[in-house]
Design goal:
The complex is a heterodimer. By secondary structure, chain A is mostly beta strands. Classes of the chains: A mainly beta, B mainly beta.
Chain lengths: ~120, ~110
């Protein structure tokens, strides 16, 4: 079955750039949307952004100025870059497969597969 | 401050039923489909309900979802100690600041 696995540094210094990669195994990366979501300590889930396998992206407006999501279909992986990080960016970062589309009664939007998560701490 | 509002905690005894509410607005729950996720301690979130009331393969029918107006509800019957987890609702928000949104999460305690 399809599995997702995050990788990247667990510690990032303030003002630097956080970089994570998500490897997709056991299935195709094509024809799907892929997303990043984070869970700050003591808070709820926060959607960061998504990318279609063609490279089209959409970001959370509150993070848009600092976020870049990219994809490499040949390597079956997609990546997150978050610049100018502060302590408020400390969180467990999850990659996930997003299912979205337009139905009769509105937009469908849900994450059917998740990675195990990667804890990123922002500290000097 | 999450866009969708959930109660911070709910509790019930084993075997009982519990409901978790998720309140939003016309730009999100009112006009888009809702999903629910279960996060057991130390694990990644798992999809429980999508498109308001559909269950993915492998999710028992003890879990149910509904939507009415700008609110959604997750129901769990026949509570088990293994159901102790954080539960999140999510949907798409079609406002000018369009994007995916989640509730703040509800901690379920099975007494």
């Amino acid at each position: 079955q399809v599995q997702l696995q995050e990788s990247g540094p667990g510690l990032v210094k303030p003002s630097e750039t956080l970089s994570l990669t998500c490897a997709v195994s056991g299935g195709s990366i094509s024809n799907y949307y892929w997303s990043w979501i984070r869970l700050p300590p003591g808070k709820g889930l926060e959607w960061i952004g998504f990318i279609f396998y063609t490279g089209n992206t959409n970001y959370n407006p509150s993070l848009k100025s600092r976020v870049t999501v990219s994809i490499d279909t040949s390597k079956k992986q997609f990546s997150l870059r978050l610049s100018s990080v502060t302590a408020a960016d400390t969180a467990v970062y999850y990659c996930a497969r997003l299912r979205r589309g337009e139905l009769i009664e509105g937009s469908t939007w849900y994450f059917d597969l998740w990675g195990r998560g990667s804890l990123v701490t922002v500290s000097s | 401050q999450s866009v969708l509002t959930q109660p911070p905690s709910v509790s019930a005894a084993p075997g009982q039923k519990v409901t978790i509410s998720c309140s939003g607005s016309s730009s999100n729950i009112g006009n888009n489909y809702v999903s629910w996720y279960q996060q057991l301690p130390g694990t990644a979130p798992r999809l429980l309900i999508f498109d308001n009331n559909k269950r993915p393969p492998g999710i028992p029918d003890r879990f149910s979802g509904s939507r009415s107006g700008t609110s959604a509800t997750l129901g769990i019957t026949g509570l088990q100690t293994g159901d102790e987890a954080d539960y999140y609702c999510g949907t798409w928000d079609s406002s000018l600041s369009a994007g995916g949104v989640f509730g703040g999460g509800t901690k379920l305690t099975v007494l």
